[in-house]
Amino acid sequence: MYVLGIETSCDETAVAIDHADRGLISHTLFSQIAIHNEYGGVVPELASRDHVRKLIPLIKQVLSDSGLNPEEISGIAYTAGPGLMGALLVGAATARSLAWAWNIPAIAVHHMEGHLLAPMLEDNPPSFPFVALLISGGHTLLIEVTGIGDYQLLGESLDDAAGEAFDKTAKLLGLDYPGGPALAELAKTGQPHLKFPRPMTDRPGLDFSFSGLKTFTLNAFNNSRQTEQDKADIAHAFQQAMAETLSIKCKRALQQTGLKTLVAAGGVSANREIRSQLEQMCAKQQAEIYFPRPEFCTDNGAMIAYVGCQRLLAGQSQDLTIFARPRWPIDELLGV
Ligand code: KG4
Ligand code: ZN
Q1: CA 313 to chain centre
Q2: d(Cα 276, Cα 195) in Å, to the nearest integer?
Q3: Once rounded to an integer, what is the mean pLDDT over residues 114-135?
Q4: Atom of ligand 1 nearest to the CA of 161
């Protein structure tokens, strides 16, 4: 069974085909970074317009790369939310229309479930149950995952998401959008003499808050001479604080649930320092850790095709209504 997956929730147009037994067949992606770069962030209307331009050619490309005909596709999965409304609607309308034309089911996929299950695309996937840390531009979530579709929220960010905190700090330091990777690069030349707070680690619970760290970083920046070395030192201290905070909370989540497997996914999980601190913590806890390959940490079509395939195997699909939900808490997944 082949499923086509479409991702258009933000600034990447991505398409992939997944097979129930053979796994990922083909995938492609167009990143809009160059389009939004000069504005310092994603401009929603420009994102939607570019998805309109790129989506059909990318669908044609994965079909031709895979050597498959439309008649061989059993379902079309698309990101229905959360994300930018206009951007989501491009994917939703295209997926539904194609599904109708090809007379196959369409599957509305939650973007964060895509990130959550992205490590399943690897050769050595994690087995259930596990704790998942999802760190993206819009979300910071700790989830207990018992099986596909069986998710319990353990903790989340009360304010900024991890990626948002990286992006805002990067902007403060004068770095280009998207800030996360640029900040990580700058941090390499930073000296480790500054110590930033590890928010909400001194009290029980699994929620996160990054707005205080953001203010602390702003004050450190304003109180410095703002030289290139100062900026690198601040980037380094910020990244260390993020990595250690995430690691402390993940350790707590493993201890609280008694689970011995951690999965980290979402754009920020591409960060080398965060990966390394999580790996060290898991080694000490005698727990196993799994990440998607870096290109599947950030937005991609493969994770959407995978979730669609799993849902279709479980007999789940939706009617012809074009379903897009910009705000969609992951614990409401069963309400699709
Ligand atoms: O998952 P994703 O591609 O999109 C959303 O669903 O939001 O995540 C994008 C976020 C951005 O905030 C970006 O700056 C961050 O992931 N990011 C990183 C790195 N690569 C991407 N943050 C820190 N270090 C990185 N290497
Ligand atoms: Zn994402």
Answers
A1: 24
A2: 19
A3: 97
A4: 12
Q: Give pLDDT tens digits for 263-287.
A: 999 999 999 999 999 999 999 999 9
Angle at 114 between CA 200 and CA 4, to 5 degrees: 170
Is the C-beta atom of 180 inside 6 A of ligand 1? yes
Residue with tokens 């680690």: 201
Q: Which of 166, 169, 172, 175 to mutate to test the pocket of ligand 1 (most atoms within 8 A of CB)?
A: 166
| Beta carbons within 10 angstroms of residue 202's beta carbon | 8
Ligand 1, pocket-test mutation among 30, 168, 296, 298, most atoms within 8 A of CB: 298
Scanning the structure block, which residue is given the tokens 């070395």? 229
Classify residue 181 as left (phi > 0), alpha (psi -120 to 50) or beta.
alpha
Ligand nearest to the CA of 11: 1
| 286: its two tokens | 């005698």
Ligand 1 atom showing the smallest separation from residue 112 Cα = 6
Is the minimum distance from the CB of 114 to ligand 1 under 6 angstroms? Answer: no
Whole-angstrom distance, CA of residue 76 vs CA of residue 319? 12
Task: Let me know: does 161 contact 135? Beta carbons within 8 Å.
Answer: yes
